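Task: sequence design from structure.
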């Protein structure tokens, strides 16, 4: 099965004007500004839903969440849902996309900020149709088909429509309505007719074979007939009528229709599709499928995952042997393109590069699966990572075994070493990767060719009491190096110590501690140093009972070391740790203490599932409790002593035998590049950082440039790690802007953070494509296109002109309008009434 899969959303139709790129305005015309485009999208949404989907959706009211308007709706099963709308930069080839969350029933439709205003209704029609299809399939617990059916080509067996197919049918219904709306100008209706005909061609609903090609025409017509039969019940009466007249072969069409179709086909041949596929990154079988194209079944998953893990181990051993043999043969360390780290970033893996991956995170996590359901990460198929519905039901979590199978398959597509690596600047001016294999064999090094990629995942967690400005001992050392005099003996001695207690001892022996504590510029460093000393002491006093949440997720702990656990921080990591402990130890009780529960957790499965299983208030067995209050913040490790004089942990009235810190993330230079950072410091060089974007304003990660001793080395950081900018390189306002951008790019209603599994896979593929095409752009801050544009209260002349052909169809005008949705005609600052009034 080929991995060139179109993303399941409203993608461009090659050869038509339905694209995510607005045409250059003619002289004297004004392109619709983003804030007016937002207002236009919000105003058109009620017309689209009422006009095309009134039998399945009822608009209740428009609300405001403090940042943006959104809509509450009720479906034909009397279930309430919400739809949020936004206009954002989207990847090339994508006109619109929808985050469908069948867990919370909160959904987000995003339209390209470069879309032509005339296509807003069509894009919304597609997205609403697809949204309804996903919800209905999830409600009936139906699997999604592996491929779209409305594509050209032969058909084998019965036709099963995908969510994307249903979206295309909604486009047909929309275009048919415009073709027959007598209130529209003839030019507008004629254009809709052409687009309807072009879409029939694109979706395989018409035979394209020449009249003389008898056998081919028979086969194609049979396939088209099967597709038409499958969509018939989804078509409006007017769309069905138009389809009958226009789905005939080109030689049976009338003159103007035939000429338009001929021109369209010529444009398609000369302008290849710009769909988001993995073509060019490597022609491989999609993970979860065999070479012959057959799908691995759910029953076979365990066996196949183990076989692929063994395959990966074998490739790692073979790669190590080849590297060592080349070193012996040539007397020199081999040169290779290098990738350090894996995870979901393997979706964009360069098969020619040497992958060095510790095989961590998802290969270690003993939990049930991803925090997202199969529906929430359904776009993984678009980037060739895997089919999220293949091994689980729509509203269930994607299992760890499925993730491991996908990642091992992708990792095995080229040379790899299971292990870790550090990048080191050589005295010869070269950049070297020092590799430590997981199998315990002798370390080795390779000369790095080109720009290496680091994708080592989210950075370490903060220990209680540490200062985010100087979050780690390595950062403490860096800060002290900058503060202490150049001739201080502390510099050399710190290079030989790694722990907080050793660091503090050096400062005391060199009589530097008092001066540093009195120095305001050293305050944050000393605060972190003290917190780290307390942490190390507590871990020594109570071995195995003082942990970071990541140690639980990586299964580096004993769940039976205690029966009462206190987790500080009500994060997703805390929910995961509680789930793992309670599952592994039937006698365990867990208390989660924090100041608030992040809103995104209510969009995901684990919080609800954990409460239903383990929390008394939600019908569980009572082994899990939450203690959420504004003042419940970790100000240090809560070590205490009980009435028997035994060491324990206490926050407020919550006491436990073991403690887990699940707090914020640190933001250091990635560990794989920290030797380079130290090299820059020692050589009095400089370290510069840039954000990486493609030409469509898609975030690809960040770039670090290390300069010292007359040499310069560049490193690209992508994946989850790229969401946490090193605070010694990037100013806080850039991180804040990146956070704001991420919240729009991957809204919390999706159930996934911007650094989550599916977004990381997308980012890695976009980075690979941008590199291939030489389109990686360096920025000091996110592009202005990511600045939130508020919807215009009053439509401008330019936006009204751009939307002049977007009148409601006769069917839409005849629909009843819920009063809460539409303000009175004389209401001030009403986008909807203003647009209607100017028509």
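Answer:
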């Amino acid at each position: 099965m080929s991995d060139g899969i179109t993303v399941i959303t409203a993608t461009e139709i090659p050869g038509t004007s339905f694209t995510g790129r607005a045409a250059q305005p003619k002289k004297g015309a004004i392109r619709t500004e983003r804030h007016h485009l937002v207002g236009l999208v919000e105003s058109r949404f009620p017309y689209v839903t009422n006009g095309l989907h009134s039998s399945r959706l009822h608009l209740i009211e428009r609300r405001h969440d403090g940042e943006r308007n959104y809509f509450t709706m009720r479906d034909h099963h009397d279930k309430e849902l919400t739809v949020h709308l936004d206009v954002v930069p989207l990847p090339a080839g994508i006109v619109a996309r929808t985050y469908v969350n069948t867990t919370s029933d909160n959904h987000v439709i995003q339209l390209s900020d470069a879309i032509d205003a005339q296509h807003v209704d069509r894009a919304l029609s597609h997205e609403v149709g697809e949204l309804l299809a996903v919800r209905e399939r999830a409600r009936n617990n139906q699997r999604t088909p592996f491929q779209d059916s409305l594509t050209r080509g032969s058909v084998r067996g019965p036709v099963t429509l995908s969510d994307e197919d249903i979206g295309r049918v909604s486009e047909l219904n929309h275009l048919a309505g415009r073709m027959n709306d007598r209130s529209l100008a003839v030019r507008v209706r004629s254009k809709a007719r052409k687009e309807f005909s072009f879409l029939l061609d694109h979706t395989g609903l018409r035979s394209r074979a020449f009249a003389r090609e008898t056998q081919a025409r028979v086969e194609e017509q049979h396939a088209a007939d099967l597709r038409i039969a499958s969509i018939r019940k989804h078509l409006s009466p007017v769309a069905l009528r138009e389809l009958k007249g226009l789905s005939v072969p080109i030689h049976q069409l009338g003159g103007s229709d035939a000429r338009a179709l001929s021109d369209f086909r010529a444009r398609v041949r000369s302008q290849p599709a710009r769909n988001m596929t993995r073509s060019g990154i490597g022609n491989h079988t999609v993970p979860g499928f065999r070479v012959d194209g057959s799908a691995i079944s759910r029953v076979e998953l365990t066996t196949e995952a183990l076989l692929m893990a063994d395959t990966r181990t074998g490739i790692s051993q073979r790669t190590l042997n080849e590297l060592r043999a080349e070193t012996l043969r040539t007397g020199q360390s081999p040169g290779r393109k290098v990738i350090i780290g894996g995870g979901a970033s393997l979706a964009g893996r360069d098969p020619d590069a040497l992958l060095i991956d510790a095989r961590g995170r998802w290969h270690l996590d003993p939990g049930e699966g991803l925090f997202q359901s199969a529906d929430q990460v359904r776009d993984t198929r678009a980037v060739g990572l895997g089919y999220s519905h293949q091994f689980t039901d729509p509203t269930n979590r994607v299992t760890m075994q499925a993730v491991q199978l996908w990642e091992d398959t992708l990792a095995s597509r080229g040379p790899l070493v299971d292990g870790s690596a550090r990048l080191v600047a050589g005295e010869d001016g070269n950049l070297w990767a020092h590799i430590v294999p997981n199998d315990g064999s002798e370390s080795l090094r390779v000369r790095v060719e080109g720009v290496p990629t680091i994708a080592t995942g989210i950075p370490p967690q903060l220990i209680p009491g540490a200062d985010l400005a100087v979050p780690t001992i390595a950062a403490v050392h860096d800060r002290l190096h900058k503060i202490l005099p150049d001739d201080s003996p502390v510099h050399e001695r710190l290079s030989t110590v790694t722990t907080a207690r050793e660091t503090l001892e050096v400062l005391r022996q060199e009589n530097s501690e008092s001066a540093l504590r009195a120095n305001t510029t050293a305050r944050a460093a000393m605060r972190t140093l003290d917190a780290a000393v307390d942490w190390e002491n507590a871990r020594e006093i109570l071995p195995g009972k003082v942990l970071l949440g990541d140690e639980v997720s990586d299964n580096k702990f004993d769940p039976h070391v205690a029966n009462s656990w206190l987790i500080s921080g009500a994060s997703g990591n805390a929910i995961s740790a509680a789930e793992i402990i309670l599952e592994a130890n039937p006698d365990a009780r867990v208390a989660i203490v924090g100041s608030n529960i992040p809103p995104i957790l209510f969009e995901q499965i684990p919080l609800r599932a954990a409460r239903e299983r383990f929390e008394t208030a939600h019908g569980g067995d009572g082994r899990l409790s939450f203690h959420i209050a504004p003042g419940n913040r970790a100000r240090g490790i809560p070590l205490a002593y009980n009435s028997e004089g035994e060491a324990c942990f206490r926050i407020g009235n919550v006491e436990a035998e073991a403690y887990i810190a699940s707090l914020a993330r640190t933001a250091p230079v990635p560990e794989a590049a920290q030797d380079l950072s130290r090299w820059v410091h020692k050589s009095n060089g400089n370290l510069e950082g840039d954000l990486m974007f493609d030409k469509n304003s898609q975030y690809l990660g960040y770039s670090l440039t290390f300069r010292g001793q007359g040499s310069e080395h560049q490193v690209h950081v992508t994946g989850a790690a790229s969401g946490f900018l090193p605070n010694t390189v990037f100013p806080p306002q850039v991180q804040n802007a990146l956070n704001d951008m991420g919240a729009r790019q991957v809204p919390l209603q999706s159930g996934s953070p911007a650094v989550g599994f599916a977004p990381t896979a997308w980012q890695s593929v976009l980075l690979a494509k941008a590199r291939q095409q030489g389109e990686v752009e360096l920025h000091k801050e996110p592009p202005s296109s990511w600045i939130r544009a508020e919807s215009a209260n009053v439509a401008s002349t330019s936006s009204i002109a751009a939307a002049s052909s977007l009148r409601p169809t006769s069917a839409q005008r005849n629909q009843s309008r819920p009063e809460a949705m539409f303000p009175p005609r004389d209401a001030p600052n009403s986008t909807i009434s203003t647009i209607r009034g100017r028509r």
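The first strand starts at residue 10 and ends at 11.
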